[in-house]
Task: inverse folding
């Protein structure tokens, strides 16, 4: 070390030590976990370390992810912007970000903080490498505030991501792999008894369901031990009194009807924030107490910057929920779910403290629609088989989850109905509440510039030209999307001639849901210039058209597999998958696609292999089963720390 470096270290150490109002910030982020913790009143949980943390923390009872799946939510956390506002809402979309959008630790580094990330990034954008480079001094499996590159006394922002509760461990690995890699690390008294598990009303009460719930609880107990170790290291280093600690999960539990859906089971997360005594003036409440303030992931970035005295950039879409001058409490949290892996979907939610409003834009698709990664789990297969073999045994809540479709709209009183199984949309006494949510949902999505009503193909066209969709274009697309659920065929038909492909796409979806039967008008769309429109028209005609229409439609879908844009090829593949044996003529194409993608790296190839393989399996063709457990050995899918799971 030269003389200048030594001098600089002394200067920095003195400056850092002199600034008593620059707390360290520690984030402990866990995967795929709802608030199933003792401190949240869960009597099945064994979480002694987190429960102790809660006694010294503010416990947030109304904290919510931006999306019920990892990468869109992580995009929100790092940018301080909703994923639907940046184009990072479809899973593994790889859309670019504006150069003006930075990861928020960038601003901490500018202010002299040492920033570390251990280890997951998963920011769901083509600009992920830029975000990582500008956000973190160290981003690796060994990243720690103890890194030798951190100057003496330098304040830090350290993130630790714990995978122990991830869906892979809680349900997708084989049970033997779970026992070997998770349960074996627990003492016998820490292992959960399946007979004592509380089965949610939307699950059938079966041995497989109970065993999976116990398995998930075991994962939480091991994660709790890991959390205790990190907190102990903070104490060992004498830093606990100087560090504000956040503990939260990236979305709800990695279980069916939790992860990937917008009910509280998928969106509500635990959030504890511990403020040391010297920073109690920044806390919204006393240690060991709770607050029902609504918090969204979009609020996390501005909160951290505010806590350390940095003015959040104007482009952030949330506000600080703690600090010297927190923002006014929010009235609502907004949620979104779009395509995840090969499963196409669009859902939106708006939630206040009492009600949850859901809007589903593909009501003909089941909540339990096929998903190759989830379908490797025995609980998904068990629920699906139970619904198929014993439909008469399903309760209304179980039928809504596992049935063939879902309501276009739902409204739940989360206070009276915490599991959200009693839809109030048709109740006259809730008409005023429903009207308020419909109105405020439209207003809120316009304010944040939600791009979800544009097809991925449209989003890619904008991205290729380095443009962003105008508010007028978004408003027109949303107006058409909102027609899904309408039975007014006369007003829907003119939309089939709309100039914008997105409006034609949604008109087609709305007409199908309305029971429109004039196949001739749909057959004309097989030649539509927009791939999403002609592919959806083709799927409809294979199911409901004449024999001639069916043959022409399958040809359109087979040709769609060769689309230059992988997102369109995936759309064609997914349509064929859902059509099953009715699209048998596509066998040569699907077999070739599967063979070309099954062992290749890349998300697009993985999703195409998921979908084509599922179709081949459904018609009796031989495929290689998916195995995501460690025992599978080297695997061609992306690494677990940043993979699509």
Result:
């Amino acid at each position: 070390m030269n003389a200048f470096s030594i001098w600089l270290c002394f200067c920095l150490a003195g400056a850092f030590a002199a600034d008593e109002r620059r707390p360290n910030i520690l984030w402990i982020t866990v995967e795929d976990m709802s608030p199933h913790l003792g401190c949240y009143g869960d009597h099945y949980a064994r979480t002694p370390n987190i429960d102790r943390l809660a006694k010294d923390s503010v416990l947030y009872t109304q904290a919510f992810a931006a999306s019920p799946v990892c990468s869109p939510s992580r995009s929100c956390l790092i940018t301080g912007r909703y994923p639907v506002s940046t184009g990072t809402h479809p899973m593994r979309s790889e859309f670019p970000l504006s150069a003006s959008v930075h990861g928020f630790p960038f601003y901490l580094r500018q202010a002299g903080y040492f920033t570390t990330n251990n280890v997951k990034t998963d920011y769901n954008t083509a600009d992920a490498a830029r975000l990582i480079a500008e956000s973190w001094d160290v981003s690796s499996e060994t990243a720690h505030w103890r890194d030798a590159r951190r100057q003496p006394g330098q304040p830090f922002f350290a993130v630790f991501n714990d995978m122990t509760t991830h869906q892979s461990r809680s349900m997708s690995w084989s049970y033997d792999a779970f026992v070997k890699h998770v349960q074996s690390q627990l003492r016998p008294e820490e292992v959960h008894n399946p007979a004592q598990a509380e089965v949610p009303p939307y699950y059938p009460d079966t041995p497989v369901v109970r065993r999976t719930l116990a398995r998930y609880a075991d994962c939480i107990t091991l994660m709790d031990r890991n959390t205790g170790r990190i907190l102990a290291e903070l104490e060992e280093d004498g830093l606990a009194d100087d560090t504000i600690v956040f503990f939260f999960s990236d979305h709800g539990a990695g279980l069916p009807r939790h992860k990937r859906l917008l009910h509280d089971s998928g969106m509500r997360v635990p959030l504890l924030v511990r403020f040391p005594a010297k920073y109690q003036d920044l806390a919204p409440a006393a240690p060991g107490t709770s607050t029902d303030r609504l918090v969204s992931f979009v609020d996390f970035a501005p909160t951290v910057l505010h806590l350390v005295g940095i003015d959040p950039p104007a482009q952030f879409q949330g506000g600080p929920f703690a600090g010297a001058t927190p923002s006014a409490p929010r009235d609502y949290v907004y949620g979104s779910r779009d395509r995840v892996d090969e499963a196409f979907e669009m859902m939106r939610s708006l939630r206040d403290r009492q009600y949850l409003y859901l809007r589903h834009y593909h009501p003909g698709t089941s909540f339990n629609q096929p998903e190759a990664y989830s379908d490797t789990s025995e609980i998904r297969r068990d629920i699906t088989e139970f619904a198929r073999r014993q439909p008469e045994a399903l309760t209304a809540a179980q039928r809504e989850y596992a049935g063939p479709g879902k309501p276009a709209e739902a409204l739940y009183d989360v206070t009276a109905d915490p599991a959200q199984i009693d839809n109030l949309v048709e109740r006259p006494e809730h008409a005023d509440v429903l009207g308020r949510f419909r109105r405020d949902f439209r207003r809120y999505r316009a304010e944040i510039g939600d791009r979800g009503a544009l097809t991925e193909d449209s989003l890619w066209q904008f991205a290729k030209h380095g443009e962003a969709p105008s508010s007028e274009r978004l408003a027109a697309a949303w107006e058409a999307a909102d027609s899904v659920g309408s039975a007014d065929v006369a007003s829907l038909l003119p939309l089939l001639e709309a100039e914008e492909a997105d409006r034609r796409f949604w008109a087609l979806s709305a007409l199908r849901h309305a029971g429109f039967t004039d196949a001739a008008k749909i057959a004309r769309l097989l030649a539509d210039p927009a791939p999403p429109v002609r592919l959806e028209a083709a799927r409809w005609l294979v199911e409901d058209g004449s024999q001639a229409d069916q043959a022409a439609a399958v040809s359109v879908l087979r040709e769609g597999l060769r689309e230059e844009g992988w997102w369109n090829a995936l759309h064609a593949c997914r349509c064929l998958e859902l059509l099953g044996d009715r699209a048998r003529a596509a066998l040569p194409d699907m077999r070739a696609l599967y063979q070309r993608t099954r062992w290749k790296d890349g998300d697009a190839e993985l999703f195409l292999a998921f979908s084509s393989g599922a179709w081949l399996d459904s018609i009796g063709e031989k495929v290689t089963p998916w195995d995501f457990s460690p025992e599978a050995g080297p695997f061609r899918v992306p690494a677990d720390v940043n993979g699509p799971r």
User: Anything to note?
Assistant: The CA atoms of residues 32 and 253 lie 4 Å apart. The domain at 517-645 is CATH 1.25.40 (Serine Threonine Protein Phosphatase 5, Tetratricopeptide repeat). DSSP finds 24 helices and 13 strands in the chain. The longest helix spans residues 207-236.
